[in-house]
Amino acid sequence: MPDTIIALATPPGTSALAVLRLSGPDSFSLTSQLTPVASASQSHRCYYQTLKYEGDLIDEVMITYFHGPRSYTGEDTVEITCHGNPLIIQRILQTYLKLGARMSLPGEFTQRAFLNGKLDLTQAESVIDVIEATTLEALRGAHAILEGALGQRMQTLRIRLIDLLAHLEAYIDFPDEDIKPETGQQFIDSVRLTLNEVHELISSAPLGKILREGVATVIIGSPNVGKSSLFNALLRSERAIVSPIPGTTRDLIETACNVGGFHLRLIDTAGQRTTEDMVESEGVKRALHALSQADLILYLVDASQPRISDSFQPPEPLPHQHFISVAHKSDLGVHPDHHQKIAVSSKTGEGLKQLEESIRQKLNGGRDLEKQGWLTINARQEAALSHAEEALLRSLNALMKSDPPELASIHLREALQSIGEVVGLATNEDILDALFSKFCIGK
Questions:
Q1: Structural domain containing residue 16
Q2: Domain CATH for 360
Q3: Which has the minimum average pLDDT: 72-86, 218-232, 238-252, 395-409?
Q4: C-alpha to C-alpha distance for 156 and 288, rounded to whole angstroms
Q5: How far is CA 132 from CA 107, 128, 261, 404, 438, in A?
Q6: 386 and 359 in one domain?
Q7: Is 271 within 8 Å of 283 (Cβ atoms)?
Q8: Looking at residue 369, what is its pLDDT?
Q9: Are 296 and 264 in contact (CB under 8 A)?
Q10: What is the DSSP string of 333-376?
Q11: Do 202 and 251 form a contact (C-beta atoms < 8 A)?
């Protein structure tokens, strides 16, 4: 029988109110030692009570009881809303620990919800994404998975694979029963359809990484092309010092902003030039290092000047990097050399919306996310689906070459196993412990 666990479910510190959560078989009996209502409590009802221990008042609280399995964890659960004084919170925790509860581990409430069948593994993982989302789009995607959108797609794929395997293996096991093998075009089309759907989900992984982790965005270019001005314009705040004097920005300036629905970690850099100034030279080196680590590069040139006048040419972007060329200071005119670039003026605001839309299109991979939705996969899910994709491809090749049906069956079973791993149907305990350890205590 599992232990009864307790934890603070709201952030630590002083606040008007705080919530503590218990889950486990003794949640009600332990609470009944502090207040007389617990033994007769109704599920999903909130009660105003006083908590007392050994005759001493602890606090006046609101207590909500959830009878398992109709609770978040699937177990008997109690939530206590008390005054947010850390002394009161600590005293309630210590009292329950004396009575026999134990402090929960990080993510243990959600882990119990998964183990008790209240959530599949994709939904459990999305809980931390809901908590940590930094944009409305990231929150929208996390909510979609928490509501079961990804799990339902996995279930659809599993049912299709199970049906294919059932028919194929019936033919293999009972060759004399006149069972026609669906190894013709219909069978191949079903495998190919599954392969395409898996590939589509895998292609969402880069977007998922961006939504969850943000985008390291470097603004780079020669001195006096207006990097700090664009930095401020995107922030809509005078964060960086703007000056016509070359070398004003000598170190990296980093801050966060929301552009086109994405969380950008925006980095202003020193102008790229050869200099004898040791401090500025170090700033140039740091800018190049930031450039090598960037997810998104905004390369600025002076819109009014010919291309040949710019001595700095950025290195070829890495495969994972997004690159946008910006002809800045367009209010001074745009030279014909830069007509293919996005013309922007931080002074007048011209082109800023076009730049933001270009950033959005680069980062979402050209998807129409309003129609397709913000459903994305994480790194663990990507690895499992990649194994499924490889197995489906091997199965498809075996069918196309008319290999023995046993080979196609083996590969289809591998794909089924990998898809099951996405929702937690074939996940070992070490993986679960590592996954839930990333959660905060109380969740």
A1: 5-104
A2: 3.40.50.300
A3: 238-252
A4: 47
A5: 14, 6, 15, 49, 12
A6: no
A7: no
A8: 56
A9: yes
A10: ---GGGTTSEEE-TTT-TTHHHHHHHHHHHHTTT--HHHH-S--
A11: no
Residue entry with tokens 């092309």:
225
Comparing 178 with 62, the larger pLDDT belongs to 62
Reading the block at residue 399, the tokens are 């069918």
Could you give the CA distance from residue 238 to residue 236 in angstroms, rounded to a whole number?
Answer: 7
Instruction: Give the pLDDT mean for 3-19.
Output: 95
Distance CA 265, CA 249 (A): 18
80 and 141 housed in the same domain: no
| CA pair distance 90, 31, nearest whole angstrom | 16
Which residue among 81, 104, 127 closes a domain? 104
29-46 pLDDT, tens digit each: 999 999 977 666 789 999
What DSSP string runs through 185-248? HHHHHHHHHHHHHHHHHHTTHHHHHHHHH-EEEEEEESTTS-HHHHHHHHHTS--S---SSTT-
Would you say residue 441 has pLDDT above 60? yes
Least confidently predicted of 124-128, 155-159, 356-360, 368-372 = 368-372
**Which pLDDT score, from 0 to 100, does residue 13 have?**
92
User: Is residue 105 predicted with pLDDT exceeding 60?
Assistant: yes
- Count: domains in the chain: 3
* φ, ψ for residue 33, nearest 5 deg: -80, -10
Same domain, residue pair 228 and 332:
yes
CATH label of the domain that carries residue 168: 1.20.120.430
Distance CA 414, CA 430 (A): 21
* CB-based contact 226:269 (threshold 8 Å): no
- Is 442 among the domain residues? no
Q: How far is Cα 37 from Cα 45, in angstroms, rounded to an integer?
A: 11
What single letter denotes the amino acid at residue 166?
A
Residue 222 shares a structural domain with residue 343: yes
Tens of pLDDT, residue by residue over 352-371, are 999 999 998 888 876 665 55
Residue 370 within any structural domain of the chain = no
Say how many Å lie between the first and final Cα of the chain, rounded.
Answer: 21
**306 domain-assigned:** yes
